[in-house]
Specification:
Helix 7 links the parallel strand 5 and strand 6. The chain contains eight helices and six strands. The strands form two sheets. It has a four-stranded parallel beta sheet, with helices on both faces. The protein is of the alpha/beta class. Helix 4 packs parallel to helix 7. The chain is globular and about 50 Å long. It has two domains: about 50 residues, no CATH class; about 90 residues, Rossmann fold. The longest helix is centred in the middle third of the chain and has 15 residues.
């Protein structure tokens, strides 16, 4: 039984090890063939082994999302108040605390490109009206590329602390 049959994922991401990169495996072609065979996206993230720093790895991952995922599906509907949250790891569930606030304000979070992102919502991130960048070290390049490709403006924000959270919510609504 393969991964697709057992777990029924929306997509499969394949990362190279340093050994497969060293011997020259054509992982990209293998992923394309696998995608045809199992009728699911199988996406190669070309960051073998210990390539660079953590931030470089995140940048490579974001580039993969930009080139292979974002823009590959359409949401059921859009609103004038759709935003993306880009770049937060959401390790301790920080984003979950602000989602109800946006809902009360009438702002829909179309896509979270965070540590707990879902494949489908990342596919239609290109339809947001604003990207809200958290952790600009990791995500600013992604936001800049989305601004160029899709015309989505972005702001850099922090929601840690009462003052930052108030400013964050006001700045999102102002855009």
């Amino acid at each position: 039984m393969n991964v697709a049959q057992r777990y029924h994922p929306a997509a499969i991401f394949v990362y190279a090890t340093c050994l497969s990169a060293l011997i020259g495996d054509d992982i990209d072609s293998i992923c394309k063939l696998a995608a045809q065979q199992i009728n699911l996206p199988v996406i190669y993230v070309n960051a073998p082994g210990f390539l660079g720093s953590k931030n470089l790895g995140n940048c490579i991952g974001n580039e993969t999302l930009l080139n292979a995922v974002i823009g590959t599906a359409e949401p059921e509907f859009t609103t004038p108040f759709d935003i993306n949250i880009v770049g937060d790891y959401n390790v301790a569930g920080e984003t979950w605390n602000i989602l109800p606030l946006f809902q009360k304000m009438g702002v829909r979070v179309l896509s979270k490109i965070t540590g707990d992102a879902r494949y489908q919502e990342v596919c239609y991130a290109h339809r947001a009206k604003l990207n809200v960048v958290l952790c600009s070290n990791v995500a600013i390049q992604m936001a800049q590329t989305m601004a160029e490709r899709y015309g989505i403006p972005y702001i850099e924000e922090s929601f840690y602390g009462a003052t930052n959270l108030n400013d964050y919510l006001r700045n999102v609504v102002a855009k």
